[in-house]
Amino acid sequence: MPNTSGGDKGEKEWRSVSGNRKNQGKTRAGNTRAVAPNGFDDIDEPSMSLDMVAEDSLNRPLVFAYYVTGHGFGHATRVVEVLLDCGAVQADALTVDRLASLEKYSETAVVPRDTILATEVEWLKSIKADLVVSDVVPVACRAAADAGIRSVCVTNFSWDFIYAEYVMAAGHHHRSIVWQIAEDYSHCEFLIRLPGYCPMPAFRDAIDVPLVVRRLHKSREEVRKELGIPEDVKIVILNFGGQPSGWTLKEEYLPHGWLCLVCGASESLDLPPNFVKLAKDTYTPDVIAASDCMLGKIGYGTVSEALAFKIPFVFVRRDYFNEEPFLRNMLEFYQAGVEMIRRDLLTGHWRPYLERAVSLKPCYEGGINGGEVAARILQDTASGKNYTSDKLSGSRRLRDAIVLGYQLQRVPGRDLSIPDWYANAENELGLRTGSPTAEMNDDSFRMPIPEDFEILHGDVMGLSDTMSFLKSLSELDAALDSVKSPEKNQRRERKAAAGLFNWEEDIYVARAPGRLDVMGGIADYSGSLVLQMPTREACHVAVQIIHPTKQRLWKHAQARQNAKGKGLTPVLQIVSYGSELSNRGPTFDMDLSDFMDGDQPMSYEQARCYFARDPSQRWAAYIAGTILVLMKELGIRFENSISMLVSSAVPEGKGVSSSASVEVATMSAVAAAHGLNIDPRELALLCQKVENHVVGAPCGVMDQMTSSCGEANKLLAMVCQVPASLVISEFVAGVCRQSKSIDLLP
């Protein structure tokens, strides 16, 4: 946030702090090393600026103390030793170490908290700060309150939201960290909320501003001329902020005639001729705007610049980076995002993603002057202006608290989902900063079976959810034609599903319900009586077996097969509905030959490692694992390709057996498609093996047994006996000894 010189007052100063109070450099005109919006990897000039001298009504220079968090702030973290918070600790370029992050924060900000507060309060008073601005260091808000100084936060996420999931998954003994951070934020007067925001109930009020984007210095033509790149050459900028370790870039990664500009490459990195290493001091916004697409990981800086400059963004998901779903939602809503599977990034299958990206037409038309708007708000606040409280601040905080509550109750390993009704509201300027709220249409649940859909075997049994699923299947063929003219709010998963099936071949559909625990709980581990009841909510799976020559392959799967040079071989393709707003990929594909180790199916241990390679696609183990279990336990060999569509209404992570319903529905559909007659009890035991051995989750058998054998409006009683060979140090699942149905009393 620079100053300008003017009038007879001479040079004006805005003082700033970047995480570390010791580096309290004065921010003068032309010197911008300390202040920039959260998430930018390179800082050349700040995005929040004023075209006037920062003075109050008495022409007194205003003094700002600006605290910047250490994480995701590439340039600042290289020159600043952060003492007030630590952000998130990354295990590698794509993975956050949750437990290490909590332990580091405790060491950095919890243990020395009293000393930090005393030091900061004394310093803030000594410089006579008019306003404390935090992005988003929690303790800065409390220090400002203790010093009697107003404070404002500027951000799209807060650390209580980020750490909440870390606490649930990796360190319950650190739970007090979340409450302390929220308490610190509550001392902030209001929040300047950036687009793509997460739920932040700790803040009393929020003011929405447009995108904060770094300004361009040069035109596209000027940048290409300086780099010596003709206008007709396609450019992808690799903007990773740190590449995965041991990664080697190869010439064949790019389509013919393309160039890749690499940001942040080490001096020792050898690049092929179609990769160009950018200088360390390159101003990346200019290069991004001069490129045809960008490849990297999602962060506020990359997303905001992709939208502002209308540059398609090919992104790879990061593990446990909890603000990502909200930014991704905004990116994809404006037709600017293409997701790349991590294994394709690392193995160099880039071509189909890059070609898809350049076919997009990003359509963000909102404001990009958020820096100027925020700077004006900060100046007015420092001068004594009181902003009117948001009339709906109570409902906003309740809405945010509910979504944060979902986060706190999430079972480790489940998905971070955004409820359909949680959408970024229009800001005070009338500019929409995110996607619209999804509309629910109950009419679909009362629709009859589509006339153009012939049921060859079985019965829908009057189940409205099954009829709705069949209706959605019948609409996919028409949806395929509309994919070529995309709508802004069309879901990626629906686009993938539209090209999944060959409509000249049979499709097999199976339904499996969730499970409500009435009595017994986890007693199926120890041999006790349990009473379980199927839920109304269920999972539907549609399966098609088809010869490889007739299967509709996704472009990246086709590119992978071409690279192997063995012609068309059987491929498994899966689309999972309900994942477009969650932290997992909506699609999964693999060559079925990957399940083989020589002439035998791979071991379960090998399978667990296979699916664990990319956490964003680990969910596929519940579905694809059914195929491996059938191969190993029943000796089945799959010589044709398999396409699957999964749609589940069973709530995930709420203890109602969402995973068991997926496993049972999938195996039932696969068995029917291949003419296998498996009785319900045996099918349940096979599905338990999927969860125990392929997914690696210890569970008894009551979940799968209820989903497979249960009847509507009836309790299922089971007495489960643990084998005598049970070893304490190793999990051995219980075996169902007896089952029967009991009429549910009115």
UniProtKB/TrEMBL annotation:
<dbReference type="InterPro" id="IPR020568">
    <property type="entry name" value="Ribosomal_Su5_D2-typ_SF"/>
</dbReference>
<feature type="domain" description="GHMP kinase N-terminal">
    <location>
        <begin position="622"/>
        <end position="710"/>
    </location>
</feature>
<dbReference type="GO" id="GO:0005524">
    <property type="term" value="F:ATP binding"/>
</dbReference>
<keyword id="KW-0547">Nucleotide-binding</keyword>
<protein>
    <submittedName>
        <fullName>L-arabinokinase</fullName>
    </submittedName>
</protein>
<dbReference type="InterPro" id="IPR006204">
    <property type="entry name" value="GHMP_kinase_N_dom"/>
</dbReference>
<feature type="region of interest" description="Disordered">
    <location>
        <begin position="1"/>
        <end position="40"/>
    </location>
</feature>
<dbReference type="InterPro" id="IPR014721">
    <property type="entry name" value="Ribsml_uS5_D2-typ_fold_subgr"/>
</dbReference>
<dbReference type="GO" id="GO:0005975">
    <property type="term" value="P:carbohydrate metabolic process"/>
</dbReference>
<dbReference type="Pfam" id="PF00288">
    <property type="entry name" value="GHMP_kinases_N"/>
</dbReference>
<dbReference type="Pfam" id="PF10509">
    <property type="entry name" value="GalKase_gal_bdg"/>
</dbReference>
<keyword id="KW-0067">ATP-binding</keyword>
<dbReference type="InterPro" id="IPR019539">
    <property type="entry name" value="GalKase_N"/>
</dbReference>
<dbReference type="InterPro" id="IPR053205">
    <property type="entry name" value="GHMP_kinase_L-arabinokinase"/>
</dbReference>
<feature type="domain" description="Galactokinase N-terminal">
    <location>
        <begin position="504"/>
        <end position="544"/>
    </location>
</feature>
